[in-house]
Write a structure and sequence with these properties.
The chain is mostly helical. It has helices spanning about 5-25, 35-55, 65-85, 95-110, 115-120, 125-155, 160-175, 180-205, 220-240, 245-255, 265, 270-320. The protein contains 12 helices and no strands. It is globular, with a radius of gyration of 20 Å.
Length: about 325
């Protein structure tokens, strides 16, 4: 059964842990380099995620036995390493993009490892496999590459926040589709990203000059973990749960809508207005998708949950002295 109090504790633990760690690593330094801020952000996200999973009692098998285990133990740590290398000044940009592309190509196959989609030829034909994996590669590349490009062109806290909104929508959708553990695992990712992003944004306030002229150093690790985490949760929810392909794609590409705010009439507005427009654009498809998921949940799963709760209460009453 869902436990909102436990979820709130997990979110709070991940949020506080990530914020405290990145603040301790970055705040004392008067002039932190982008590489150091990115490294500190990666450390904070990792510790925040561990804290959230532990407080939320999300069991992860070692060695990984399920797709969710592989996402948490293999894929997300790989993203942290790749994005840590991305910010190092001596690492060539081409090599970094080669690592990112390699990760994009590996993620779907790693998540499907050991499943009927791989081991049972009758479940998937060669063409179905090629088309499905190809679409996943394309969507993941567009989202990751597009947000990284925008972060260099027009950085702002609205970019990681848009990923957090999408991840939270993915968590709710996956849970309403019947896969509780997938949604529970997504919540600490959201909180760790948000806590880290808030502190990084606050660091800008320590720089001299007008607020609008202080550059926001947006660590690439925020985007990498956000995009891969979002893709992984939706991928697992679709192939191992009951999330429809349309809803998975809608939530997965929603963060890319922040690019609409780059149109000339919108881009010329003040930064906080541009940020608000970005978040509004991302929120619209997410709210529609959540409403549809809630409708299906109330129709298909809610009656089963109520019946299960009644049975448990009845058994408890009959078994009491």
């Amino acid at each position: 059964m869902p436990d909102p109090i436990l979820y709130a504790r997990a979110i709070l633990a991940a949020l506080i842990a990530s914020a405290v760690i990145v603040a301790a690593l970055v705040w004392p330094r008067r002039s932190s380099t982008p590489a150091w801020i990115n490294t500190a952000s990666g450390i904070a996200i990792g510790i925040g995620l561990i804290a959230g999973l532990w407080v939320g009692s999300v069991h992860v098998s070692v060695p990984p036995a399920t797709a969710l285990d592989r996402l948490l133990l293999l894929i997300l740590p790989a993203v942290l390493l790749v994005e840590w290398a991305a910010a190092l000044p001596r690492v060539a940009t081409g090599f970094v993009w080669l690592l990112r592309i390699s990760l994009v190509l590996l993620v779907p196959r790693v998540l499907l490892h050991g499943s009927v989609y791989v081991n049972n030829p009758d479940e998937w034909t060669v063409w179905q496999s090629a088309i499905t994996i190809g679409v996943c590669w394309t969507l993941l590349s567009i989202c990751w590459g597009g947000l990284l490009t925008l972060a260099r062109r027009s950085p702002g806290i609205s970019i990681p926040v848009s990923l957090c909104l999408s991840l939270q929508a993915a968590a709710a959708t996956v849970m309403m589709a019947g896969y509780l553990k997938g949604g529970e695992a997504a919540m600490p990712i959201v909180a760790a990203l948000l806590g880290t992003a808030i502190v990084v944004w606050a660091v800008r306030g320590r720089r001299r000059g007008p607020v609008d002229e202080r550059p926001l150093l947006l660590p690439p690790v925020l985007i990498g973990v956000g995009v891969i985490g979002l893709f992984g949760i939706l991928f697992i929810g679709h192939f191992f749960g009951r999330v429809t392909d349309g809803r998975a794609v809608t939530i997965g590409v929603a963060p890319v809508l922040v690019w609409v705010a780059e149109l000339r009439p919108l881009k010329q507005q003040r930064p906080w207005i541009v940020g608000a427009i970005r978040l509004a654009l991302v929120s619209i498809p997410l709210l529609v998708t959540l409403a549809l998921a809630k409708r299906d949940y109330d129709r298909d799963l809610a009656p089963l949950v109520v019946m299960t709760s009644v049975d448990v209460l009845t058994e408890s009453a009959l078994g009491s002295p």
